[in-house]
Design brief:
The complex is a heterodimer of chains A (569) and B (180). Chain A has 569 residues and is α/β, with parallel strands linked by helices. Helix content of chain A is 51%, strand content 20%. The N terminus of chain B is likely disordered. The chains are: A alpha/beta (569), B alpha/beta (180). Chains A and B meet through helix 2 of A and helix 1, strand 3 and helix 7 of B.
């Protein structure tokens, strides 16, 4: 944090200042002591030199009274412990000494020494080249009180400065701690706000896409059915087949888009049940490998023990994985490696998620990656970096929706040329997962050999026509009704099964179904709805009808009808 | 002359001086020995004009005018001694005059020349004249006398200045009287 650094620097400077101050004080004390000793020595030497220079004649003429006079004058200085005059041969001629002084009995030569706080100086007395004798001065050792007195000032100043420094440093340290706490709190709050904004934005967009999906589904149903009809009835088989296939592919792309939109909007009826992500991935391995193509190596790194079930929708999870696989493939045009990894993780203190056990699903590619500003918007719906027509921008938004629906979150980490890692977190479910179900997909080519009478109720004539065409192609007999009232009127025809569109003006599908049930209690009913709120429909019908999510293909409808007729019989 | 012998000589002389009062009781020879030591020791404290010496190492001549009372003590005290670069030599002469070449002259007096006459002869010349109260007559630049049984001296600074001589203040400090 840039705000913290100056404070730290200030504290560092203060500490350095303290150390420097103490060192400087000690240095000054030593220097002062050395200067003091040098001065004491110099003083003693000067006094000795003066004595040596003055005492020549007295020494020469052995004038002991004159010598005593000289020495007496010196002894007035309380720092002089002893002063003496020695003859040419070193014999002591005159000596004045205080108690404790250590003057020698004989003295020759010159010396200067500093020991035990005393200074001892001896000098020869020379006149005109003649050495007449020697003089001696010894100073009193310095008392502890004098030493303390000399250094007290500096000690007090240093202590005051240290006190001041410690005070300033302490308050700076407290300031730093407070600042750090504040920065942390600001950071945490900003992260939480960012997370909240992200959720709100995506949920708002989800609401919007839910509405789009409803209208889109009706259209898709018509397109899908029309192409199917063409495929079945065309004389110019080759051309019609090609168009029909194109149409079907387009319709499936549209269906995929709406599925993504609805999953994203969280209003689609999701079959949330405990499932094992690892098993789902293993079941998809072939599909993933085909999606990725030969240039991309798929690595499954699954932590399946112990099994951690999560609450999710198998189809949506598969779709999420497919979306991630497609994105990864597109990010690795030159080939690469895709790793799908699952791990159990324990979260605590997460900005978005509650603390607890999660299953972490990571999809890691070695692709071109993306810059931060792109990664940040990657989960936004309709945000895409792909060329027009190549991507809807809903893939990662769907991934995000799946993870959120499972009580988790989706995150993306990417650096340019450093690959991308998408992490999905699923909250661990309390209940155990059943053994994996493998949904059987009905094939378009499966022929229906039914002759049952079907009551087809839809306000949209186009839809009615294509569904009718598809069902008749499979051998069903079809009674068409454009409204709920018309359908009730046709009850007299004894239809064996009813397929009712939910969203109709006037009497809606649920009401129609209810009325029909009164007339024909044994009639199996299929409600087709492009609307997302399938749960409320089933609730309204009390479980007496099967809800078929639009868009559906005719083969699937045919299969369900066959199953219902069989079980009803 | 060995160092030890020299030290022995000084020791004797100084012992005599130090024990002045008792020395006096033992008669004139001891008192004279002290006087001789004094005469021998003035030189380091006196400054002669440069012209007094012919060369830097020319001898410093200590003259005894008249009848030498020291009985050779002076010779022994000064033997081998130097003052600065000047070796000290002792010369005895009955008559002192301007050409005698003395730096220091102890005026003992003699029938030939009284101390006063000798003083007169070197008046104004750079000769440190030393007179003795015992010898009677006038006073030279340095005048020796006995006080309380001890040998003392006075110094006439004015006369020294007339003779172009400098006298060290250290010596003046020891004089019992300094005449200015």
């Amino acid at each position: 944090m840039s705000q913290r650094d100056p404070a730290r620097r200030r504290i560092a400077i203060l500490w350095i200042g303290t150390v420097v101050l103490v060192l400087a004080s000690v240095g000054l004390a030593f220097r002062e002591e050395a200067l003091h000793q040098a001065a004491a020595l110099q003083q003693a030497e000067a006094q000795t030199d003066v004595l040596a220079g003055s005492v020549g004649a007295a020494l020469s003429f052995n004038d002991s009274s004159a010598m005593r006079q000289y020495l007496g004058a010196l002894m007035r200085n309380p720092q002089v412990a002893a002063a003496g005059i020695y003859g040419e041969n070193g014999q002591q001629l005159a000596l004045l000494a205080r108690p404790g002084a250590d003057a020698p009995a004989t003295l020759t030569g010159e010396k200067t020494l500093h020991a035990g706080g005393r200074v001892v100086v001896a000098r020869p007395v020379i006149e005109q080249g003649q050495t007449l004798g020697y003089v001696y001065i010894e100073t009193t050792p310095e008392g502890a009180s004098a030493f303390v007195a000399r250094h007290t000032g500096l000690v007090i100043l240093t202590l005051l400065a240290l006190l001041l420094l410690s005070f300033v440093t302490g308050s700076a340290a407290r300031l730093t701690v407070a600042n750090a706490r504040l920065s942390e709190e600001i950071g945490a709050r900003a992260a939480a706000e960012e997370a909240l904004r992200q959720s709100q934005k995506l949920e708002a967009l989800g609401q919007l896409t839910g509405g789009i999906a409803h209208d889109f589904n009706t259209l898709l149903q018509a397109i899908h059915g029309a192409f199917e009809l063409i495929l079945g009835r065309s004389a110019d088989e080759k051309t019609v087949r090609r168009w029909a296939r194109n149409g079907l592919e387009a319709a499936e792309r549209g269906a995929s888009l709406t599925r993504q939109l609805l999953a994203f909007s969280r209003q689609q009826k999701l079959e949330m049940k405990p499932l094992l992500v690892g098993e789902t991935i293993e079941g998809m391995q072939d599909l993933l490998t085909r999606t990725l193509g030969p240039r991309v190596e798929l690595i499954l790194d699954l932590d399946n023990q112990p099994r951690v079930p999560v609450m999710s929708d198998v189809t949506q999870l598969e779709l999420a994985l497919m979306n991630l696989a497609v994105n990864a493939r597109d990010a690795m045009p030159e080939g690469g490696r895709l790793t799908v990894r699952t791990r159990r993780v324990e979260l605590s203190g997460d900005a978005v998620l509650q603390a607890g056990r999660y299953l972490q699903l990571q999809v890691i590619d070695t692709g071109e990656g993306m810059p931060l500003h792109v990664a940040r918007r990657a989960f936004d719906p309709f945000f895409t970096t792909k060329a027009v027509g190549k991507g809807t921008g809903l893939g990662l938004a769907q991934v995000y929706g799946v993870a959120r629906q499972a009580g988790g979150d989706a995150r993306i980490a990417s650096t340019p040329h450093g690959g991308t890692t998408v992490t999905m977190l699923f909250r661990a479910a309390e209940t155990a997962a059943p053994d994996a179900e493998h949904e059987t997909r009905a094939s378009l080519e499966t022929p229906g050999a039914r002759s049952a009478c079907v009551l087809l109720v839809d306000d949209d004539e186009a839809v009615r026509q294509v569904v009718r065409g598809g069902l008749e192609m499979r051998g069903f007999r079809v009674l068409e009704a454009g409204s709920g009232e018309a359908a009730l009127a046709l009850a007299a025809e004894h239809p064996e099964i009813a397929v009712i569109d939910y969203a109709m003006p006037g009497m809606d599908g649920a009401q129609t179904a209810e009325q029909l049930k009164r007339l024909l209690p044994q009639l199996p009913i299929i409600l087709a709805s492009g609307h997302s709120d399938t749960a409320s429909i089933e609730r309204a019908l009390g479980g007496q009808a099967t809800v078929l999510r639009k868009p559906f293909d005719i083969a699937k409808l045919s299969e369900i009808m066959t199953r219902m007729l069989r079980s009803g019989a | 002359m060995s160092v030890s012998l020299r030290h022995w000589r000084w020791a004797v002389a100084l012992a005599l001086a130090f024990t002045g009062p008792s020395a006096g009781a033992q008669g004139p020879p001891l008192e004279l020995a002290v006087k001789a030591a004094y005469v021998a020791k003035f030189a380091p404290f006196v400054i002669w004009p440069p012209a007094s010496f012919a060369a830097p190492t020319a001898p410093l001549v200590l003259c005894v005018q008249g009848d030498d009372p020291f009985d050779g003590i002076l010779d022994r005290l000064t033997a081998g001694e130097t003052v600065g670069a000047h070796p000290v030599i002792v010369r005895r002469l009955q008559r002192l005059d301007a050409d005698s070449g003395c730096e220091i002259a102890y005026l003992a007096g003699s029938p030939v020349q009284s101390p006063d006459a000798a003083l007169k002869a070197v008046e104004g010349l750079p000769v440190l004249t030393v007179t003795d109260a015992d010898s009677g007559g006038g006073r030279g630049i340095v005048h020796l006398l006995l006080i309380g049984g001890r040998v003392r001296f006075t110094i006439d600074v004015a006369k020294a200045a007339q003779s172009h001589l400098g006298v060290s203040s250290k010596l003046l400090a020891l004089a019992i009287k300094v005449k200015r």
